[in-house]
Amino acid sequence: MTIGQDRLHRRMARGTAFLGCEVAILCGAMSWVSERNLVAAMSNAGGFGLIACGAMTPELLDAEIAGTKALTSKPFGVNLITMHPQLFDLIAVCAKHRVTHIVLAGGLPPKGSLEAIKETGAKVICFAPALSLAKKLIRSGVDALVIEGMEAGGHIGPVSTSVLAQEMLPEIAEQLPVFVAGGIGRGEAIAGYLDMGAAGVQLGTRFVCATESIAHANFKRAFIRANARDAIASVQIDPRLPVIPVRALKNASSELFTAKQREVAQLLDDGKVEMMEAQLQIEHYWAGALRRAVIDGDVDNGSLMAGQSVGMVTKEEPLADILATLMAEAAHALEARAA
Ligand SMILES: Cc1cc2nc3c(=O)[nH]c(=O)nc-3n(C[C@H](O)[C@H](O)[C@H](O)COP(=O)(O)O)c2cc1C
């Protein structure tokens, strides 16, 4: 083992102990992309895969977990969206399979959900978009946090990863494992966040073009061609209808999203839907649009959710190779620090 590898190993020790794997890198759950093949490939390579439950029914999640278990004996987790109307049934499915780690995404955990997860024996990981919320989540008993900046692909907050890391890691990293996400494309950045106190990192965009990923060839091609500046955040058109911005490669679907927002805002105005239902309709729109691109390969009208690190995705390659590259870059950066 080189000095760099040894340092990397030690800096990741807390994260790997928490996750129960060899490398403290999570493959962030990506709806439609993070199914059994990508999840198993990530875990088999020594990292930590996460099934994206998204809008799946409990029956579908049941089948997906079973399918993943058939492909790997290594640990993996499940990402559940807090807004899902059957959240507690999904938690029960995870319990049945003895899933060890559950990530709650998409907003603050609803009442009773943390307790329900803890009762199953699983560890709970939440997203903390600000320091105050992180402290609140720590008080309510979460086991680990992900802090994700606006460089990320998919739904995003307003603050960059580098600012969140500086603001939050010194305050909370000693209390529980914190994983940094958003805009990470190379190992040097991973080494940097570990030095700042992160227990590990979470990447999404960088893994989309893994050979094992079932994303359509057109979707992967769009990633390989794109530059950082092509991954732009969606725009809210109506101040009365707050929508969480989504970062994706620009294409014709931005106009479709504008039209969808107008349609839903009109339903709100007419009193035909409540705000909660309006926001759920927006989320269903995204799930459908992402499916069109990832599964059907419609890269014009579907949503090409991608982070700004997309410019560093240059080819399709086995997941184990991507992970090995990231680890080698991180070790090299830490080795250089000795000089
Ligand atoms: C195509 C795509 C779909 C995503 N879907 C989800 C999701 O369903 N749930 C979730 O919590 N995060 C989702 N994310 C965010 C990732 O899990 C991860 O946190 C993010 O990609 C990390 O930032 P990066 O893309 O800069 O690496 C998605 C990201 C992408 C690129």
From TrEMBL:
GO MF, any single term: monooxygenase activity
PANTHER family, per the entry: 2-NITROPROPANE DIOXYGENASE (PTHR32332), 2-NITROPROPANE DIOXYGENASE-LIKE PROTEIN (PTHR32332:SF20)
Keywords: Flavoprotein, FMN, Membrane, Monooxygenase, Oxidoreductase, Transmembrane, Transmembrane helix
InterPro entries xref list: Aldolase_TIM, NMO
Transmembrane segments: 12-33
UniProt name for this protein: Nitronate monooxygenase
Organism: Sphingomonas donggukensis
Stored Pfam families: NMO
Matches recorded under Gene3D superfamilies: Aldolase class I
